[in-house]
Design goal:
Strand content: 25-35%
Number of helices: 2
Shape: globular
Radius of gyration: 14 Å
CATH superfamily: RutC-like
Number of domains: 1
CATH architecture: 2-Layer Sandwich
Number of strands: 6
Distance between the termini: 17 Å
Structural class: alpha+beta
Length: 132
């Protein structure tokens, strides 16, 4: 696909990237969303102070904002990846995740434990959506 068919997605409703990447890239009918951590989009501060419930809720809110900016919604998400600092948080994260993505055809998903995430986050989620 020629790069002229790629479009950077940017919205002030989600945090600015903390590195040299876009919040998402639209490639034809596909939306590739970068991982979101629990940053407040207004001031870039961390949300939750280690409270996995608050962090996960903010991550999902940020992801929804990016999807919406790309013209998508959670019903069009086909793949997610969840990154956790501690798999002991899996049940809590999964419960919050299911409220957003629990539909007849839930997205394919991976969940992995990682050594660290940017800015000390406990959770990060990325996704791919199809607009077709």
């Amino acid at each position: 696909m020629p790069t002229s068919n790629l479009k950077a997605i940017k919205t002030s409703s989600a945090p600015s990237p903390v590195g040299p990447y876009n919040q998402a890239v639209l490639a034809g009918e596909w939306v590739f969303c970068s991982g979101q951590i629990p940053l407040n989009p207004e001031d870039g501060s961390m949300v939750g102070n280690g409270d996995i419930t608050k962090e996960t809720t903010q991550v999902i809110n940020n992801l929804i904002s990016v999807l919406n900016a790309a013209g998508a919604d959670v019903m069009q998400v086909v793949r997610t990846t969840i990154y956790l600092i501690d798999l002991k948080d899996f049940e809590i994260v999964n419960t919050i995740y299911a409220k957003t993505f629990g539909k007849d055809v839930s997205p394919a998903r991976a969940c992995v434990q990682v050594a660290a995430l940017p800015k000390g986050a406990r959770v990060e989620i990325d996704c791919v959506a199809w607009l077709g």
